Here is the input.
Amino acid sequence: MIARPQSTRARILIPFAIVTLIWGSTWLVIRDQISVVPASWSVTYRFLLAGLAMLAFARAKGERVRLDAAGWLFAVAVGTLQFVLNFNFVYRAEAFITSGLVAVVFALLLVPNALLARLFLGQRLGRQLLVGSGIAMAGVALLFVHEVRSDPHGPATALTGIGWTLLAILSASCANVLQATRTAKRYPMLPTLAVAMLIGAGLDAVFAFLTVGPPVVEMRIGYLLGILYLALFASALAFPLYYGVLRVIGPAKAAYSSVIVPVIAMLLSTLFENYRWSPLAAGGAALAGAGLVVALTARRPAR
Here is the structure.
């Protein structure tokens, strides 16, 4: 009897679905976060709260921070790449282009994740994974064309936003691959990730103070609730789930969350922003979903 592929098991699909649904909703929230408060301060508040929440949860579970020199270096690297560079770039991108276009471009995370996993982790890309990737990327291309056509800001502004997004993708991909290394697995995930978030929040605060001045807080209920949602659900809950999946199925297949996220973002935009689906967008969403199914039923990548 042939065992079912690792990625089809409930312990992979359930957290994968939760992460995808949560992150599919964050683009609208992030867009609202940059209206008054400088992006770097919003990022600081998000990860300060998320890191403290994760640390408290880890302590409640009896997990303690036990890091040697290599562990602290790992936490600093993840904190800098994922919680400083990645998110500062994403928040700045949304000042230039629509949240939908940022989400669509971010689906390209699959490409550097697969290449870096092959280069540094020795994970081979099987035929089924490549076929699924090709189908999904075709869908992303259709979504990209649709979003660029409908973006009201013009080509120069759009290119600036896309550039910031590509920098965010590269930073996130490096952090993703770090989470799949043997070094990452030597330390308990929750407290280590909490430390990385708090280090990131500290660096975010220094960067924010040096570039935009003292802290700014918008005492608007929508902004405050947005910070809570992004910190507790999109960070403290979603990142441990995502990294747990990534350590099992590898960075390439885990990056498929970024392929289906723009589809969810557009579905939510249909409900809350009166988004209108064109045949191009609908076809792109269908291809992205089909590629996701094909790729995630492939065998676990070999190491």
